[in-house]
Amino acid sequence: MTSKKLVNSVAGCADDALAGLVACNPNLHLLQGHRVALRSDLDSLKGRVALLSGGGSGHEPAHAGFIGKGMLTGVIAGAVFTSPAVGSILAAIRAVAQAGTVGTLLIVKNYTGDRLNFGLAREQARAEGIPVEMVVIGDDSAFTVLKKAGRRGLCGTVLIHKVAGALAEAGVGLEEITNRVSVVAKAMGTLGVSLASCSVPGSKPTFELSADEVELGLGIHGEAGVHRIKMATADKIVAIMLDHMTNSSNVSHVPVQSGSSVVLMVNNLGGLSFLELGIIADAAVRSLEGRGVKIARALVGTFMSALEMPGISLTLLLVDEPLLKLIDADTTASAWPNMAKVSVTGRTRIRAAPTEPLEAPDSTATGGTDSKQMVLVLERVCTTLLGLEEHLNALDRAAGDGDCGTTHSRAARAIQGWLKEGPPPASPAQLLSKLSLLLLEKMGGSSGALYGLFLTAAAQPLKAKTDLPAWSAAMDAGLEAMQKYGKAAPGDRTMLDSLWAAGQELQAWKSPGANLFQILTKAVKSAEAAAEATRNMEAGAGRASYISSGRLDQPDPGAVAAAAILRAILEALQGQGA
Asked: Residue 107's beta-bridge partner residues?
């Protein structure tokens, strides 16, 4: 089936994309009658070398995103994955020449169509007396044996744009720029990996992968790679990529070894999430540093994509200090990252955690028996939540991500781990405060924040007294905090419904002679009834409030979990005869 794309028309998508970029960037102009973008300050380049690049569309932000002072002068764009027309390339060369530049360098990725079309335009321009040179960039490290066509041009081309742009901005001549970037291009390599293919507008995906496969060594036009490997962790995939790129038996390898200094590019091929991109970047840094490689600079982002391809490429460029100065040189190109001009390797990445404030003495601490009793209560709560994990997840799927059970199980395991470290505080106030911090740190999600708020507020009335009226006041304080910051109210189909129902029953603890178990039993039954009643409520808060009420035919998982916690507390206390 043809993939969905947000375009006006298949035929006009490349023109529209370039027009959109220029419309939003006052530093760019379109060349009339051509799919060409140029610096809007072209006349300021008199006496300098112009840099032109380009290729098929679909690689955004390449190539037009790298137009600017200190990088490219202009870009010629073809249709999606199609080399640009010779006439447009020649028009761009003429435009920069007529603006007073002293020569033009064409930076071309190594693909047959690009070589032919840029090469033909170069010959025509030279016949007109315009000084034009061309460098063909092939940084692909996928192929282990030499191919007649040579190495494909990939994301490393962007680094050549940067180096050439810095040289041109410094007033270096055409011949020297050509020679220097040709040397730099031989000291880098790029390798891509993808979880799936991409699809040209109006077409189907270019290749298919099974659920447990990834494509290694693919290009940027949706073409298949050199190997299909089994799906693995990010660490393993990155290790495979770096092994392949640096293996000396690979004819297209990068000669990176222990002690080498490199620029690392982690490039999103278009459809990878930023979360995954960060994980890949971390894996790449750790793996390279583990091999004794110094990462002088790291660029992470989308630089040269393949439409919506969910994959990444890694580029390694061997560098020394003079080359780093060119990489660090200022540029106004919109797609070049605001990169720190310091080494990645060798710097401290961790700041010490702040010290915990000293705990004030608590007059309500009783020690021994009560502490053991609380351990048994907490253990019962944890066992209950772990047993409900799948049930709560199933209830939560109706309202979104289906992780309510996982979140509560994470809290339970965190509490279990904490209990193994030593006895909990004997003071109820300190116990609730510690639990609050633990859940805020380990539980995650809105549930962690809400429980943390509840416990923090509930701890305050227990600092002075721990009798039944104080526990009722603690429940009141917790509920008030949840409503204040969570913005939920009773009847909104949230965990608050169960807790609120229980809190109303626990008001009876404030009466003289109140019976602990009778009132707590009534509170638990009210909480369970309230949880079940959420089945018929329309959600007024939380993620479920965005879901049609017709689809919410199960009780709220947060309310069910809260009622289950109260039931576990009751049964644990009854089991001890407390």
From this structure: 53, 135
Q: Which are the contacts of 178, defined by CB distance < 8 A and separation ≥ 6?
A: 105, 133, 135
Please identify which residue in the block is written with the tokens 């309500």: 364
Active site residues: 221
E strand or H helix that includes residue 268: strand 261-268
- 148-202 pLDDT, tens digit per residue, is 878 999 999 999 999 999 999 999 999 999 999 999 999 999 999 999 999 999 8
The closest alpha carbon to 155, from 15, 280, 256, 301, belongs to 301
List the domain range (segments joined by +) for residue 308. Answer: 12-200+210-328
Question: Looking at the domain assignment, is residue 354 inside a domain?
Answer: no
Task: Report the domain count for the chain.
Answer: 2
What 3-state class would DSSP assign to 470? helix
Question: Are residues 319 and 435 both part of a single domain?
Answer: no
How many CA atoms lie within 13 Å of 413's alpha carbon, on the beta-carbon side? Answer: 12
Residue 300: give its domain's CATH number: 3.40.50.10440
Residue 350, CA distances (Å) to 189, 289, 340, 442 in order: 31, 16, 17, 19
Check if the beta carbon of residue 461 is closer than 8 Å to that of residue 470: yes
- Exposed/middle/buried for 153, CB within 10 Å: 0-12, 13-18, 19+? buried
- Both structure tokens of 100: 């007073």
Helix or strand run (H / E) with residue 495: helix 495-506
The reply, when asked if residue 492 is annotated as ligand binding, is: no
* Of the residues 266, 295, 328, the one at which a domain ends: 328
- My answer on whether 145 and 262 are in the same domain is yes
**Block residue for tokens 């070894």:** 257
CA 391 – CA 413 distance, rounded (Å): 17
* SS3 at position 413: helix
Question: 155 with 20, same domain?
Answer: yes
| Cβ neighbours, 10 Å, residue 235 | 15
On whether residue 36 sits in a domain, the answer given is yes
Residue 424 domain flag:
yes
Strands laid side by side in the 311-318 sheet = 227-230, 213-216, 188-194, 311-318, 261-268, 294-301
Please check whether residue 337 lies inside any domain of the structure: no
Where does residue 295 fall: left (phi above 0), alpha (psi -120 to 50 degrees), or beta otherwise?
beta
Residue where a domain stops, chosen among 263, 297, 328: 328
- Cβ within 8 Å of residue 300, ≥6 positions away: 265, 266, 277, 278, 281, 337
Backbone angles phi, psi at 173, to 5 degrees: -75, 165
> 224 with 166, same domain?
yes
- Residue 189 annotated as binding site: no
Q: Is 59 annotated as a binding residue?
A: yes
Averaged pLDDT score across all residues of the chain: 92
CATH of the domain at 571: 1.25.40.340
Question: pLDDT tens digits for 42-51?
Answer: 999 999 999 9
Please tell me the pTM assigned to this model: 0.76
Same domain, 324 and 383: no
pLDDT digits (tens, 9 = 90+) for 429-474: 999 999 999 999 999 888 899 999 999 999 999 999 999 999 999 9
Distant-in-sequence, close-in-space partners of 419: CB < 8 Å, separation ≥ 6: 375, 378, 379
| pLDDT score at 1 | 64
Whether 244 and 99 map to the same domain: the answer is yes
Residue 173 annotated as binding site: no
